[in-house]
Amino acid sequence: MAQTFEQGWAARPFAEQFPELEIQQALRLDRLNHAITDLYMAEMLTDSQVKAIREKKFPRVVTKAVLGKA
To answer: Which of 10, 25, 29, 41 is most buried (CB neighbours < 10 A)?
Structure first.
């Protein structure tokens, strides 16, 4: 797995970033990525919440999906 991955509104689809992912997993990660952005833009998440999600929680979810472990 790459050390980093793209996230946010301009990120490439996860299926493109990680071709080894099953399509359903990649689509789920794309939906989560978009949801985080949408909630932030709707001012339903604070800057600190988005920072925690983008830097800690979401990378764990992606790692689990790509490597099959936390």
So the answer is: 29
